[in-house]
Specification:
heterotrimer; A mainly alpha; B alpha/beta; C alpha/beta; A: mainly alpha; MetI-like fold; 10 helices; 83% helix; 0% strand; elongated; B: alpha/beta; D-Maltodextrin-Binding Protein, domain 2; 2 domains; 5-stranded mixed sheet; 3-stranded antiparallel sheet; 13 helices; 12 strands; 44% helix; globular
Chain lengths: 248, 330, 231
Amino acid sequence: MLHKRLQQFVLVYAAGVLSLILMKYLLHLSDYVIPGPLEIWRTALSVFVRYLRNVADTLWIAVVGHLISILLAFAIGIAGRRASWIGSLIHAAAYNIQAYPMVAVAPIIFILLGDGIIARLLIAVMICYFPLLLSVISILSEPVDSVEHFYEATGRMNWRLQMRIRAYENIHKLTTVIVGSATMAMVGTIVAEFVAADAGIGYSIRIALYQSDLSKILAALFLIGISTSLYLTALEWLGNVIQRKCQA
Amino acid sequence: MNRNIKIVGILGLAGYILLASVHGYCADTVTYRLKWLFNASVAGDLYADARGVFARHGLQVSVKEGSPEHDAIKELELGYAQFGAASADQIIRAVSMESPIVVIAQLFQKNPLQWVYRSAKLTIQSPVDFKGKTIGVTYGGNDETILRALMAKFGLARDSVNLYSVRYDYTPFYEGKVDLWPVYINAQGVIIRQKLATAGEKTAFFSPEAFGIRFVANSVITSRKLLKENPDMVNRFRQALIEGWQEAMAPENTEKTITVLRQFDKDTPEATAREQLTETRPLVQPGSPKDVGQINVTAWKQTEDIMLNQKLISGPVHVTRILKGNLKTD
Amino acid sequence: MMQIECQNISFQYPHTDIRVFQQLNCRIDDAGFHALFGPSGLGKTTLARMMAHEIGGYSGQILSDSSKKILYTHNMERLPGWASIGDIILSSIPVSDAERMQMLTDAFGMRPCMNARFRRLSLGQKNRANLIRYLLQDFDMLIMDESLANVDETTRGRIIITLKTLFAEKTFLYISHNMLEVARFCKDIIVLRSPDRLPQVQTLQGQDIMDAESFSMPAVEQTMLEIVHAS
C-alpha cells in the first residue's frame, strides 16, 4: 500500500519536475525562473534536513488537528443526525461554513491568537472539520432499515445503538472520509503557515517565495508529498485493520 | 482554377494586412508589472498611466498591480510583461542566475525600508543601541538582508538582538512584544504612526541608509532582448515613466496625484494617502526633479557587495553591466 | 385473544396515482397460523405494515386492541455484525428467556451456528436467526413477510409446526407465495386481489394441519383450487 502510494507520488512529482525542466529549455528560461536540474538537486541536499524538520512540525500539527476534527465531527454529527431543528441548524451551518474560504479568516485568527501553535491548529481544524462533519452527518443520518427495523419495532432502539449500527454498517465509507479529510488537514496546516505562522513547511515555502527560489519550493513540495503519503497510508492501514476486525 | 487562385490570393492578402495591423498596434502596447499594491509607492507609475503621459509618448501601457506572488522578472522572461518593477536584491539574484534583464531606471533614490519604534520607550541613536532589543524581520525579505548588513557593519553579534518573524499584522508591535518593526516609511510607516498618535504615543523611525547601508529598492527593468530590438520604445517608456513621476511628485500637482491615487486605491483614507505621498517625495526626488529615475551605481555596487557577503549570491554579477539608464555615482 | 379488523381501507402511494387498496375489508378473529396470499405487487407488505402500525396515511380503519403487541418481520432483515448471533439475540432478550432461546435454536436447527457472525450464515440460516429473535419478543401477533423464503421446504414445514405448537395462543400472519404451504398449514387464508376486483379480499379456510407427515392431499388440493379461484 505504502509502496504503491509513494510510487504514484514520485511518478507524478517526477513528471512535474521534468515538464518544468523541459519548459525551461524549450523557452530558454534562466535559472531564476526555473532552476536547472543540478541546482534543484544541490538546493534539495542543502535544505533537506531543515525542511524535514519543518515538515515534521507541519505533520504533527496536521495529525493533531485531524484528530480533533474527527472527534468534533463525530460528536456534532451524532447530535446533528436527527431530523430535529438542532440537526437542521447544524447541517445548514456546517454546509454554509464549509463553503466559506477559511483562508480569508486565517489572518483574523492569527491577529487574535498570535502566530503560535494554537492558531495553526485552529486553522487546520477549521479547514478539515466542516467537510468532514457534513460527510459524517450524511452517513450517520442515513437509516440502515434492514438492521434497525427490529430494534425500532421492539422499542429497543436508543441513540447509542443507532449510532453503533450506522457506524458499523458504513465503516468503509467512514474510513474513506477520514482518510480523505487527512489531506484537508495537511492543506489547512500548510495554508495557515503560509498565511501567517512562523514555523512549518508552509512558512519555509513563503520564505522561498520571497527569495524567488523555485528549487527550495520543489524540495518542500517533495517532502510534503512524501509525508502526506506516509500519513494517508498509516490511516488506510488503520482503517483496514478496523474493517478486518469488523468483518472477522 | 484561375478564380480559385484569385480567391486564395485575396484571402492571403487580407490575412497579411490584418496580421500586420495587429502587429503594428501591439508594438506599442506593453504591460508593466508593478512591485507592490496600488498605493503612494507607485504614485508616479499610476500618474503616467492615468494622466496620459504614456499616451503622450505613443505608448499604451497596461499597469498591473504587484504582490509577493507576482515576480516581474519571471513575467518578463515568460513574455507576460515587457516592463516591471523589482527590488535590487531580486534583480541581482536573477542576474546571478543568468536572467536576461536590464535596469532602465531606479525609482527610489533612498530605500523606504526603515524600522519604526516608540520614541518614548527607546532611544536609538545608532545600531549599537539594538543590543538586547527585539527587532522584527521578514525572514527571506530584504529587510533581513539590510539588518544583517547593518549588524555586520557595526560589529553586532547575531545573538545580541532578538529577531522576531513578522508578517502584515502589526499586533505584536502594538502590544509591545517587538521593539522595532520594519516598515516602508511611505506606506505602513504612516499608518502605524497615525494609529499610535491617536493612542497618544510618539513614534520614530530608524533609517539604515543614515548609517551607510545603501541597499537599492524598487527599480524598473526590461529584457535585454527588448532593449536591443526596440531601444526607441524602451527609451520612450523610461522617459514617460520619469515624467510621470516628476509630475506626480511636483507639489503643485498634489491634488491631481491624490485624485489618481484615490482612483486606484479606494481603501486608503485620503488623509493617509496625502501623508504617504509627502513621505514618498524625498525618497524618489531627494533634490531636484532631475534626480527622478537616476541609477545610483555606487548604491548598486554596495547592494551587490552586501549580497555577496551574506552569500545570497554565489559569485559577483558585476551589476554595472546591466544598468542602462541615467547613471550617477556618489 | 388477538383480533384485528381492517375496515374500508383505501390507500394510494404518496405523490403517485397508484391505487393500492379500494374499500378493503378483512379480519382475523382468533389465534393461530393465518396467511396473507396474493400475487406480487398487490400490496401484501403494505397491508401487513399498516396492521403493525408502521404505515399510516390510509383511509378507513384498522381495529385492534391497543394493548396487544403486533410485530412485523421480513426476510431481508439482518442482525448486527459486531458479535455472534447468539450474543446479539441474548442482548435483546431478558436473561430469563435464555432457556427459551436454547429451545428455539434447537427446534430451528440453529445450535451449530450460534457462535457465528450473521454474515457467515447461509440465507436460510439468516432467516431462521432473525425469526428466533422475533419469537423471543413480547408479541401477540407476528406478521412474517416471507420470513422463511430462503429456508428449504422440509425445514420450513418443521418450523411452522413448531410455531403452531409452541405458540398456540399467539396469532401469526404468514405472507408467502407458496400456495401448497399456505393451503396445508394455514387456518384463515386472506387472498388479496387487484383493487379493480371487488371485494379486494376473500378469506378462505386452509387445512391448518399440525403434522407435516399426515394430511389429506385431496383436501389440500381443494383449498389450492379455491385459492386459485379467489386470486
